[in-house]
Amino acid sequence: MYKNYLSPQEITDYTIAGGCEKINRKASIVFLLAVMAGIYIALGAFAASVAAHDIANKGVSKLVTGAVFPVGLMLVVINGGDLFTGNSLIAMSTYEKQTTLLQFVKNLSIVLIGNFTGALLIAYLVSHTSLLTMSDNRFGAYVIKVAVHKTNLPFKEVFVLAILCNLFVCAGIWMMYAAKDIAGKILAGFFPIFAFAISGAEHVVANMYYIPLALFSKSNLAYVEGAHITADYLSHLTWARFFIYNVIPVTIGNTIGGLFIATMYYMIFKKLPKNKNMTCLPK
Questions:
Q1: What are the sequence ranges of the domains in the chain?
Q2: pLDDT band at 1 (very low <50, low <70, confident <90, very high)
Q3: What is the topology classification, in CATH, of domain 8-268?
Q4: How far does CA 86 lie from the centroid of its chain?
Q5: In Å, how far are 31, 80, 114, 185, 186 from 77, measured between CA atoms?
Q6: pTM of the shown model
Q7: What is the pLDDT of residue 273?
Q8: What pLDDT is recorded for position 4?
Q9: Which residues of 225-249 are buried (b: 16+ CB within 10 A; e: fewer)?
């Protein structure tokens, strides 16, 4: 009987095979696919910010953000792209000894640099438009406020929020792998990413758009004044703090969240079944 989706066991095999394919690509191709993924996630973040920036009710604002942001992951999965958070699932092919740990780490490193390049490009382009003056500069103020909040979070909190983020994202990607058609992939990916976007969790590639955009724009006093940010909080919005207190803990946390999903399903569907043969008794 034809099924239009894969079972969890079949998703495991599909993910292992996909991990091998990703590892065996030329480094230049991996980098370019990662640039595209960074661009797509940044476009999703950009569109979500435009949609939500002038909504006073925080709950409604988050709902709108959640409804728009998933377009980024849809573009990555359907159009083709290598995303750092999703590529942590390559660990399954490493567990299966079809790829090596060194290859896995190399792939994630190239992808992270490529994602940053793509996201930074979109942040730079947006900062050089008049879009930030939208709603009497309130969009620019929103951009500053989001980035200041992210760069003022304690290291430990950012780390934990990053783990939570990639539980959402990798679970969503896992579901998208299950679908065999475009509509199914869109539907499967929408709700987990919707939930992530409204949760307040930290995604390293999205932050590579949100925070640099504010860094490119913080010299505009109208945006800063509209954000109603104290000088002490604003002083933390620097490139150094972005990398040390956001990129590093979020990268580590995202990796752990992705490895958790990969490890659990590898254990369930590959490792543990080999250790014990069970037969069902007739009723």
A1: 8-268
A2: very low
A3: Glycerol uptake facilitator protein (1.20.1080)
A4: 7
A5: 16, 5, 16, 8, 9
A6: 0.94
A7: 87
A8: 82
A9: ebbebeeeebebbeeebbeebbbeb
